[in-house]
Amino acid sequence: MIPEPTILEMLNAATIAIRGSAEKNADFVRGSDYESLSGPCAVIWSREAQRDTDLFNAVNFHTAEGSDLTELALKRYGKQRILDSRGTGTVTLERPDGTFFDELLGQWINGTIEETIWKGTRILIVGSSPKIYRTTEDVFAGQTDLVVVIPIEAEDIGPGSEVNISDPAGTRVRVHDQLEDVGWKVTALTCADGTLFEQADAFRTRIRKERLAERVGQTQAIIDACEEAGASNVALFRSDYAGPQYDYGLNVVYVGDSGYNGTPELVEACILALQSVRIAGVHLQVLPMAPASIDVTADIYLIDTPGLFDLDRLREVHEAGIRQYMNGESGRFSYARSGILGAIILRTPEVQRVNIISPATDASVVEGPMKNFVPVLKRYVVNSINLRYLAS
């Protein structure tokens, strides 16, 4: 942005203009007639420049502050700013039944009194870190009302107010103000966290990220659309996944339910859902997932006789390493025998070499010499692990 002109710069401009066109030897020393005329004008124009800058900044997303930014984001992008707020929830009050039998009258008498629990009544959580909550509306309790649930809010603004207490005995939480019926006790209190005002830079950063994710063709927008269509698992692969030499311009989305089963109905639903988030002209294919189990069998050769080592510990470490590899990002939909070997050798210097018997081959997302995407993406899960420890 061009910097605002200063008063001195405006006075110099007036000097140049008058001396250049009207009077070559005009007197512009401090207190002169010309300065008396141009000085106030310079001050007024300086203020006008500041006003124009402020108005521009107020409608510019990158420079707006305070309420200007809050209103701008809501009107332009439909994004709500996180403001200061207190946590809200409910408190449950209970009291004993005051009904008794009057022998003189020969009848039962309801001795429970009517009472209004006023807005602002404080509720105290006792302990080393006491917290205070307060009711947010007046609640009337009739003679027959032994239980009342009242909305509350935290006394302090911001996070730290979240709580969920069930206290039938009424010992952890109590009413901090005096009520007419002293029999009231707090049996439950729940409250959510409050929020703190979202600073301008953090607010702008969040909006940029959200708007980027909402753009058509973005990864998150595609995943969200598939999940809304019923998919629990979504895997995206760009057309250049196998390398630029195998880029045929076809991007692939694999979908599956919570068990990694991609039914024809789910695939069709995702195809229809993606029409609103995909980029026109970009080829995008939707294919199913399917679960698959594998058995891992390996001969592990140790640096010395197996009887000299804690084989139970080694087996536990090696099995955990194999499962971690297969459940990680590199092993969920593909695996390599070398990766399984590395998972076994890692952090076990007792191992000299490993012979992987099964699986006999690697598995990948692409297949064949042309590196085409597989028609069904398999989610590999380890079924059994058989390890045999031998001496080198």
Descriptive keywords:
flat; 29% helix; 392 residues; GMP Synthetase, Chain A, domain 3; single chain; 7-stranded antiparallel sheet; alpha+beta; 8 helices
Strand portion = 25-35%
Q: What profile does the largest beta sheet have?
A: 7 strands, antiparallel
Query: What would you report as the Rg, rounded to the nearest angstrom?
Result: 37 Å
User: What is the succession of H and E elements?
Assistant: HHHEEEEEEEEEEEHHEEHEHHEEEE
| Largest sheet strand order | 9-11-1-8-6-5-10
- Helicity range: 25-40%
Number of domains: 4
Q: How many strands in all?
A: 18
Instruction: Enumerate the spans where pLDDT stays under 50 for 5 or more consecutive residues.
Output: none
Spatial separation of the terminal alpha carbons: 73 Å
Helix count from the secondary structure assignment: 8
The structure class reads alpha+beta
Shape: flat
Query: Kindly state the mean pLDDT as a whole number?
Result: 89
In short, what is this structure?
This protein is an alpha+beta fold. The chain is built from 8 helices and 18 strands. It has helices at residues 7-21, 33-58, 66-77, 200-214, 219-228, 264-273, 311-327, 337-345; strands at 86-94, 99-102, 107-110, 115-117, 122-125, 131-135, 139-141, 147-157, 163-166, 173-175, 185-191, 233-237, 250-256, 283-302, 351-358, 366-367, 372-373, 377-391.
